[in-house]
């Protein structure tokens, strides 16, 4: 199930906007493709990130995958709970499995992102 209230990147990250703060994670589709996640590397609080840039990586029992930032901005929080329990991304990718929060520097942060219907079409092909 793809939550309707989020925005999505073609690289399978999701974005939840609350004014200028964006919470970012990976989609259920992405975690399913990766398999059991065993390690997460995330940027530090205060890091500046650019949309489309690699900001970390996820290591699973199958592979290592890059995490791409869907937006530009400054990291204001990271989910430190993932350091000791990265598997929560598999069990709750849209809730407790969030990755980072950033203060977006974009005027229209959702302009380049997909809505739920378009993302659903992307992953169902």
TrEMBL record:
The cross-references to CDD domains, in alphabetical order and at most eight, read:
GCS_H
In this protein, which residues make up the domain named Lipoyl-binding?
21-103
**Does the keyword Nucleotidyltransferase feature in the UniProt annotation?**
no
Q: Which PROSITE patterns match?
A: BIOTINYL_LIPOYL, LIPOYL
Tell me where in this chain the PTM N6-lipoyllysine is found: 62
Which InterPro entries does this one have?
2-oxoA_DH_lipoyl-BS (IPR003016), Biotin_lipoyl (IPR000089), GCV_H (IPR002930), GCV_H/Fam206 (IPR033753), GCV_H_sub (IPR017453), Single_hybrid_motif (IPR011053)
Mind telling me which GO cellular component terms the entry cites?
cytosol; glycine cleavage complex
- Keyword check for Endoplasmic reticulum, yes or no: no
Q: Name one GO biological process term.
A: glycine decarboxylation via glycine cleavage system
Gene3D superfamilies registered for this protein in UniProt: 2.40.50.100
- Cofactor section: (R)-lipoate
- Cofactor annotation remark: Binds 1 lipoyl cofactor covalently.
| Family classification | Belongs to the GcvH family.
Function noted in UniProt:
The glycine cleavage system catalyzes the degradation of glycine. The H protein shuttles the methylamine group of glycine from the P protein to the T protein.
Q: How does it assemble?
A: The glycine cleavage system is composed of four proteins: P, T, L and H.
HAMAP family recorded: GcvH
The protein's name is: Glycine cleavage system H protein
Q: What's the source species for this entry?
A: Aeromicrobium ginsengisoli
Gene (name only): gcvH
């Amino acid at each position: 199930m793809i939550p309707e209230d989020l925005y999505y990147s073609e690289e399978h990250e999701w974005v939840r906007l609350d004014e200028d703060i964006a919470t970012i994670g990976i989609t259920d589709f992405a975690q399913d493709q990766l398999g059991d996640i065993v390690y997460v590397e995330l940027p530090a609080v205060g890091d500046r990130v650019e949309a489309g840039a690699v900001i970390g990586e996820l290591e699973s029992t199958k592979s290592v995958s890059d995490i791409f930032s869907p937006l530009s901005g400054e990291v204001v929080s990271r989910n430190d709970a993932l350091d000791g329990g990265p598997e929560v991304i598999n069990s709750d990718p849209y809730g407790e499995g969030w990755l980072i929060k950033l203060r977006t520097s974009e005027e229209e942060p959702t302009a380049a992102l997909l809505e739920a219907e378009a993302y659903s079409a992307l992953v169902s092909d």
